[in-house]
Amino acid sequence: MEETFDFDKLVDRRGTDSYKWDVKEGELPMWVADMDFETAPCVREAIEHRAAHGVFGYNVVPEEWYEAYQNWWETRHHFKIEKDWLIFCTGVVPALSSIVRKMTTVGENILILTPVYNIFFNSIVNNGRNVVQCPLRYRPEGSSIKTVAGYGEAVGSGAKAVASNGEAVGGVAADQEYVIDFTALEAALSNPQTTMMILCNPHNPVGRIWTREELAKLGELCLKHHVLVVSDEIHCDLTDPGKEYVPFASVSDACRENSITCIAPTKTFNLAGMQTAAVFASDPVIRHKVWRGLNTDEVAEPNTFACGVAIAAFTKGAPWLDALREYLLENKRIVREFLEEKLPMVHLVSSEATYLLWLDCRNYTRDSVELAEFIRKRTGLFVSDGAEYGKAGEPFLRLNVACPRERLLEGLERLQRGLSGFGA
Prior knowledge:
By secondary structure, the chain is an alpha/beta fold. It has 2 domains: 63-316, Type I PLP-dependent aspartate aminotransferase-like (Major domain) (Aspartate Aminotransferase, domain 2, 3-Layer(aba) Sandwich), CATH 3.40.640; 318-421, Aspartate Aminotransferase, domain 1 (Alpha-Beta Complex). Helix content is 36%, strand content 15%. The chain is built from 13 helices and 17 strands. The protein has helices at residues 41-51, 63-77, 92-103, 119-125, 182-189, 212-224, 253-257, 266-269, 284-296, 306-316, 318-342, 368-379, 405-421, and strands at 28-29, 86-89, 109-114, 130-135, 137-138, 153-154, 159-160, 178-179, 194-200, 228-232, 259-263, 277-280, 347-348, 356-360, 381-382, 384-385, 396-400. The strands form 5 sheets. It has a 7-stranded mixed β-sheet, with helices on both faces. Strand 3, helix 4 and strand 4 (130-135) form a beta-alpha-beta unit. Helix 3 packs parallel to helix 4 (119-125). The longest helix has 25 residues, at 318-342. The radius of gyration is 21 Å and the shape is globular. The N and C termini lie far apart (55 Å). 50% of the residues are buried. The model is unreliable at 144-170 (pLDDT under 50).
């Protein structure tokens, strides 16, 4: 009998110390990447079973934890991760910051493809390194590539994006709205002070799944210019049904040997508060340095539940995840149809992955900070302003649609009210 899951259930998260829901009464948060769904039943059962034991001392990483990651990646992502490549850590963000500290020195440049996850900036700047923004090329609805309102500079490196003829690059489908500007990328990588690139794969917030050809070219350029790649693949399981992501390390020997990959069940199964993740690197020298950094920073020891929830998710959670992906796809369809009918001046960037939608609001304003603040004040809807994700994100808003449909529809109605009053 096929198992069914209730994603329409409205869970009241107020009063639970939820970061997302720490808002005023009447406000509706659709911002931070945190789902409003209960986690998979198999994960809850694992937590309840372990809690019933009653003793919560220090923990080791069991053999089953390694096997769970290995089997999941080989089965779902067609990539074999060797056991000795894997290192436990408490989260992808702690891992990123630790890797930045251990693998680069103060004052060096770290490159990111913007607009991108805002915490990348924090991990770089807070550790005394320089951010190099290499803007993705944006071409709405597959039109000819265009540089958006002066966003064509690779900020921080002094390199400028060179306009191309707009043709698909490196195996990119012609209808992709965001593509990598490889001319600008190589110019930024060639700076001797650029020693690391943090890649988001799949990409948050634009929803791109990078192709094997794109990743191969990126990997070749990074190896050529002696730039280490750190690939954040935390959203890898949240692809649309029928879509598969490509692990960066699976693409080539160059990609595998010159990279560190961060993975976790936390975004996929809504487990951020459990502090459980993994890092893997095939090169033994790189891996040893990463292992030393994570241990020195004290982010390599699991809490009582951290390994158990990962094991349960990766060994028994596939049916729940497949149902979730279908539900999220329908939510995305609802948003698209709503915008087309009621907010045609907003362009929804096509998405292949994540539950975060990227809304082009330049027809209203290029100041997304002002726009997001106005919408929240007027309607109580809390969305993320695109400026958080780099200069290239300034005219955009990011909307989290990982919520029950009733809540999604309420959020869309609030968005319509907010935009209709903006500038009035």
